[in-house]
Design brief:
Elements: H1 19-26, E1 28-32, H2 37-41, H3 44-52, E2 54-57, H4 61-69, H5 75-83, H6 88-113, E3 121-124, H7 133-147, E4 152-157, H8 162-171, E5 176-181, H9 184-203, E6 212-217, H10 219-225, H11 237-253, H12 256-263, E7 270-274, H13 287-291, E8 297-301, H14 303-310, H15 326-335, H16 340-375
Parallel strand pairs: 1-2, 1-8, 3-4, 4-5, 5-6, 6-7, 7-8
Helix pairs in contact: 4-16, 5-16, 6-16, 7-8, 8-9, 9-11, 11-15
Length: about 375
Amino acid sequence: MRFRGAGNYAQKKESPTKATQLLHNLGQSIWLDNITRDLLDSGTLQRYINEFSVTGLTSNPTIFDHAIKNSTSYDAAIRQKLQEGKSEEELFFELALDDLSRAAAMFRQIHEQTNGLDGWVSLEVSPLLAHDTASTLAAAKTLHSRAGLTNLFIKIPGTKEGLPAIEEAIFAGVPVNITLLFSSEQYLAAAGVVLKGIERRIAAGLRPDVDSVASVFISRWDVSVANKVPEALRDQLGIAVAERTYKAYRKLLGSSSWQRVYNAGARPQRLLWASTGTKDPKASDILYVKALAAPFTVNTMPEETLKALGGHNELGTILPADGGDCEEVLAQFRKSGIDVDALAAQLQDEGATSFIKSWKDLMAVISSKSDLLKKAG
């Protein structure tokens, strides 16, 4: 089988190759959308690196909430930090940075081999700051400085209030993973403030090679319109939005504005596909992975999706640079009563609200564990 336009990235029939390796060969980075102390201690993350071509990972409050709640691996560290008088939030960031520092060390060789392009881990600022520009920027700078890691992205939401903080973070030299993007318009707005930050660094005589990725969420689109559109449109909205965003991404990479900063030493921002786990039980377990295979992008996958992909030995065609038939598909959704633009704004607001809930749940879990450990002596 041969990828459309993929040159030598062909699978030889006589020696089937895991689809994870095929995706890596194609030029798309596979990142794990998870981190737990158990993954690190058990050697599972290292196995994913070795066997499934994983070259980075992402985290969020929900991931850490589940990790701390469902494991005793953090109890000793929590007990120690309680003795130091840490608050719930301080305690969490220390736990998270401990985990991410270990993961970052595992990816450091990849980071160096790719000249800093790959091998990243991500930590999110408090979601409570999603609509507070100044506090988001201050938190991003503090976390970046505190971590002292060359391959750590600070995640900042691409909300209206987050965009100015992203520009200032880039100008300050903080690598950023822009999260909670749901449309090509939101992506372009995020890429625009990154460009401004880089241009300001060039004007100030600073190095312009501050890395960033733009994380566009996919599956939530299809979840939001499930049972609201004809069966023929099932599980097609997220992919159509992704195709439109990829078209905008490819166009932006070749624009004169970005080429000017490339010429000054800047590096292009990469597009990252997030929320790529299949939610529809009737659909393929690698639905979004197959549909979004494209070079010079990232796909951050839940564990189950990663393992499912490792069980396949083919992918399919590459994501079309011209967006394929995305506009026709989106037009069909509009005819079915879906206001795509309004839904994009709604999904971003709901995503921010969801992360706030997860953050509060996380703080509650840490507080509850702290109380139990105190009582246990």
